[in-house]
């Protein structure tokens, strides 16, 4: 059986005082420390989530800008190729016309030389014919 003497009540009072002090100096600080740590953890997770979302947005923007830059570069390249082809075609036509003009000029000079040679040969033939006629007439 349990004896309820004055020590039991002293131990009960001692236990209640101990619980009160333990609650005040241990439980509350530990609980507030754990709550603060949980709040910091939640804050860090939320910050990391926001940073991840911002990174995804920036990545999307970067890809879009890169795509636009590639399209623009392609357009510029096609434009420059078209211009170069046009200039090459123009230069080729110019060279062709110059060559045709030079060919016509050379043909004209050749024809002139031909006519001059024919005239020279005809005069030479006349001289030789006159010489032959003169020698035949002397003999």
UniProtKB/TrEMBL annotation:
This is ATP synthase subunit b. It holds the Pfam family ATP-synt_B. F-type ATPases have 2 components, F(1) - the catalytic core - and F(0) - the membrane proton channel. F(1) has five subunits: alpha(3), beta(3), gamma(1), delta(1), epsilon(1). F(0) has three main subunits: a(1), b(2) and c(10-14). The alpha and beta chains form an alternating ring which encloses part of the gamma chain. F(1) is attached to F(0) by a central stalk formed by the gamma and epsilon chains, while a peripheral stalk is formed by the delta and b chains. It is found in: Cell membrane; Endomembrane system. The chain crosses the membrane at residues 6-22. Signal peptide: none annotated. HAMAP family: ATP_synth_b_bprime. It comes from candidate division CSSED10-310 bacterium. It is a single-pass membrane protein. It comes from the Bacteria. CDD domains: ATP-synt_Fo_b. Keywords: ATP synthesis, Cell membrane, CF(0), Hydrogen ion transport, Ion transport, Membrane, Transmembrane, Transmembrane helix, Transport. The keyword Transmembrane helix applies. Belongs to the ATPase B chain family. Component of the F(0) channel, it forms part of the peripheral stalk, linking F(1) to F(0). F(1)F(0) ATP synthase produces ATP from ADP in the presence of a proton or sodium gradient. F-type ATPases consist of two structural domains, F(1) containing the extramembraneous catalytic core and F(0) containing the membrane proton channel, linked together by a central stalk and a peripheral stalk. During catalysis, ATP synthesis in the catalytic domain of F(1) is coupled via a rotary mechanism of the central stalk subunits to proton translocation.
């Amino acid at each position: 059986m349990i004896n309820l003497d004055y020590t039991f009540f002293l131990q009960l009072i001692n236990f209640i005082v101990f619980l009160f002090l333990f609650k005040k100096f241990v439980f509350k600080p530990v609980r507030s420390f754990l709550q603060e740590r949980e709040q910091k953890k939640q804050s860090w997770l939320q910050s990391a989530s926001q940073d991840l979302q911002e990174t995804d947005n920036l990545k999307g923007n970067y890809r879009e800008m890169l795509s636009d830059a590639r399209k623009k570069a392609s357009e510029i390249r096609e434009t420059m190729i078209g211009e170069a082809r046009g200039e090459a075609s123009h230069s080729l036509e110019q060279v062709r016309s110059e060559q045709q003009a030079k060919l016509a000029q050379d043909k004209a000079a050749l024809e002139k030389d031909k006519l001059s040679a024919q005239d020279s040969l005809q005069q030479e033939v006349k001289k030789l014919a006159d010489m032959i006629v003169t020698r035949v007439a002397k003999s």
